[in-house]
## 1
Amino acid sequence: MDKTIICFTENGKKVTEKLIGELKAHNIDNAKGYVFGDTGGSEVIEKPDVPPALFVKNEFDKGHAVIFIGAVGIAVRMISGCVNDKLKDSPVIVIDDNGTFVIPILSGHAGGANKLAVMLAKLLDAIPVLTTSTDVNSAFSADVFAAENRLAIKNRDGIKRVSAKAIEGKPVTVSIKDYPPKDAVDIIIADETDREYSLLLSPKKHVIGIGMKKDKDEGYVEKFILSVLKDNNIDICDVYALATIDLKENEPALRSFSQKYRIPVITFEASVLERAEGDFASSSFVRETVGVDNVCERAAVLAAGPGSELSVHKTVGEGITLAIAVRQ
């Protein structure tokens, strides 16, 4: 996940520069620093020429982790118009000007702000300040469990109910519904004595295979993917992964979509794609360009795993192809 670090003072700049240096030293180079106010930029810190609130909104909408170096109040005002959905909002973290405390203030669980805060605190030799109830009570967190296991949440109201039971110290069970399952395996997290407090989770079933030309417009790629999902009645929350050839792994449009919707990218070399089993569309142009006759269908099937099938065959857009496979 890209990290956008925003500061406002000279001390804030020092913390920003130290943090960027530590991240690079640990081979984490996807962080950029920005400064607002009367303070000038530096070699590693840019000074944007847009209003700070607009800049923050743009970074937030991209799904970047937004890290403020300054007061919590400033951060709250900056993101006040951005907050929308606890399961989709970007992670937001505040670090004071002295680099003493690292405080996740938004999307601590689903967005990973808590884990990121702990990691940043270690790099700065600072103190992570976590305020989410399940963390401070060392209790089971249902939404973290879902995120870490790539499970789709079917009834989000269940998160609060199950978490409340866990915080109270009541037993919480994780069980498979209707085993052996008739359809896709569903998982129930519940208070052992009261099924009313259950949270229903399901394995994410769909893998999107993508082939695209270089430097495709990010907005167009996003609209194209979303339109194909809509046409096939597939909820983006039920997408397990994006799959493509390794040559396209760092395409900005693919990275942008991946970050915004928190969907990982799986890539394959051409020789591996060639060995995928199935009846796929074939293109001599694609073979000449990347070394295999089809990327989207082959990548989707391979990433979906053994027994998977294409539910959406090669669909063509402007400089992009898409296919969807169903995991078994």
## 2
Amino acid sequence: MALDPAPLIFGLTVAEFEEVSLKVCFAGLIAYMVFIILNLAKESKAGKYGTMWLLIGLGVGFIGFVAKGFIQRLLGIE
């Protein structure tokens, strides 16, 4: 008895499900990290200028990760 080469999860192949869930979960993670940064700024009474620098300083990592995806898609490296 051979296994189905493309098992379905919610009507998607495993690869399609992984791609969609990565994008959805990563977007949720970024939103949660922005919430944490804004909460940190509020609790520390950073003000508008301090909040801006917190978002820039702590958000550079995931901004770079998202930019990497756009650059790969633009160059067709996927």
